[in-house]
Amino acid sequence: MSRTTEGAPLPTEVLIPEARRHQRARYRRSVFFAALAALLIGALVALAVAAPWNRSGPALPTGAPRPAAAPSATVLVRTVLVRPVLCLVPQATAASMAPGPLPSSCPAPYGNTTAADGVSPDVDVPNGYTVSPQQIDPGLARYASTARDAPDRVVLLGQWGDRNGARYLLGSASMRLSKAMVRSARAERGATGAWVVTIRFTPAGSAAWDALAHRYFHAYLAVDLHGAVVTAPLIQPTATSFRSFDGSMQVSGGLVTARAAHELAAAIRG
Description:
- By secondary structure, the chain is of the alpha+beta class.
- It has 2 domains: about 35 residues; about 190 residues, no CATH class.
- The chain is built from 4 helices and 13 strands.
- Strands 3, 6, 7, 8, 11 and 12 form a 6-stranded antiparallel beta sheet that branches.
């Protein structure tokens, strides 16, 4: 370092010790404020832990009545059910809100019975049979569609993908199409190019399907997929007497779209 002739330090030598003293003072102040901040944060944390609320909102005082739990969302039966068709029902409207249980049958001439359907095989007509037109029961228009499907009770269901179509009053499920009774279920194009689902039954499934089809020979059965009617075919209308289905079933009809066919096949396979 250079010095003056009198040996007095240059200003730089004087400023260094002074800066050190300021630095030490600043350090002591920063330590003090850091400690103070830590104390304040600790106090706030303690208050937060002890306070009567949590992330979900204010907690109720001890002993206060608890609000009722919100109802769970409607869950439809995720299987394929075969149900007897009781009768056709008008489409749902804003007035279709009648409470109470659904009727278990439909009065004449609306009920789906062999006598009422009047099926008659006839080789001289294009379809190979004649049948009385299905009539829609206007007395059931006031009933709301079933919101929760259940296999063991009467339900009122709409058509698959058709909100403006007629509805079906259906009896309790007579058969469940599942992998326990089905060997295979395949969505494919039929001979006419329309989508169909071809089902091959196990021996037990074949016997159950034959028994059900025999019971409803010349009557209508509905295939219920996720709470909607995919199809409601007339059983063997061109036959004069029941014949075994030989372990197979083919689901077809105007409501069997590509999506419906694939979902139906997947639901059956489980």
